[in-house]
Amino acid sequence: DAKTTQPTSMDCAEGRAANLPCNHSTISGNEYVYWYRQIHSQGPQYIIHGLKNNETNEMASLIITEDRKSSTLILPHATLRDTAVYYCIVRPINDYKLSFGAGTTVTVRA
Amino acid sequence: EAGVTQSPTHLIKTRGQQATLRCSPISGHTSVYWYQQALGLGLQFLLWYDEGEERNRGNFPPRFSGRQFPNYSSELNVNALELEDSALYLCASSGIYHSGNTIYFGEGSWLTVV
């Protein structure tokens, strides 16, 4: 019952910015956009989340369109250690859980 | 500050046995969540505990159960193990329930049923 659409996979060159798109056309005003990543066989790692405004932290930037129907996660300088499955999740304010879809498999190449 | 810690890292059990997995949340977090990730499959929500109470559970049979202790740590019990229970079991925690509170995951416990 994932509410997001992400590309299945994408490649990125080491040192370049990685832009990961996510469509969430049915998002409502009380739903957050969360991003996690999962490196092989490890637990999901929180990256960033936002409601309406763009957000930035030490790991990444989150750009949410004005209509909130899509967003982009930006890894400013991708490294080989950023190779992982990236999950974009829409989480309602009154929802206690995260619903994971298939995510985007990002491969950073030297 | 310590993150979510889980034990054991790996566990091998025989079909029909019981498995117990343990989780310590981040200090100050009161909610604990359990997820199952079978090989090649996505993360499936199992259980949510908050303030010592089971608040909700996913679509799993009753042989999946658990509890949360007064110190907010939690354990997941899987009874009458079946081969398809082999998976990575992930524990996560968050602060006072509000979806604006970030959920943080541990590294997981690998359960292998033979």
What key attributes describe this structure?
heterodimer; A: 110 residues; mainly beta; five-stranded mixed β-sheet; four-stranded antiparallel β-sheet; globular; B: 114 residues; seven-stranded mixed β-sheet; 0% helix
Note down, in words, how this protein is organized.
The complex is a heterodimer of chains A (about 110) and B (about 110). Chain A is built from no helices and 9 strands. Chain A has about 110 residues and is mainly beta. Chain A is globular. Chain A starts with 8 loop residues before the first strand and ends with a strand. The mean pLDDT of chain A is about 95. Chain B is about 0% helix and about 50% strand. The interface between A and B is medium-sized, with 23 and 24 residues.
Task: Produce the secondary structure layout.
The complex is a heterodimer of chains A (110) and B (114).
Chain A: E1 9-13, E2 18-23, E3 31-38, E4 45-50, E5 55-56, E6 61-64, E7 70-75, E8 84-92, E9 104-109
Chain B: E1 5-7, E2 10-13, E3 19-24, E4 31-37, E5 43-50, E6 53-57, E7 64-68, E8 74-78, E9 87-94, E10 104-105, E11 109-113
Parallel strand pairs in B: 2-11
Antiparallel strand pairs in B: 1-3, 3-8, 4-5, 4-9, 5-6, 7-8, 9-10, 9-11
What is shown here, in short?
The complex is a heterodimer of chains A (110) and B (114). Chain A has 110 residues and is an all-beta fold.
* Major pleated sheet of chain A: 5 strands, mixed
By oligomeric state, this entry counts as heterodimer
In whole angstroms, the N-to-C terminal distance of chain B is 37 Å
Could you give the count of β-strands of chain A? Answer: 9
Our estimate of the beta-strand percent of chain A is: over 45%
Radius of gyration of chain A: 13 Å
Mean pLDDT of chain B: 93
Strand content of chain B: over 45%
Quote the distance from N terminus to C terminus of chain A.
Answer: 36 Å
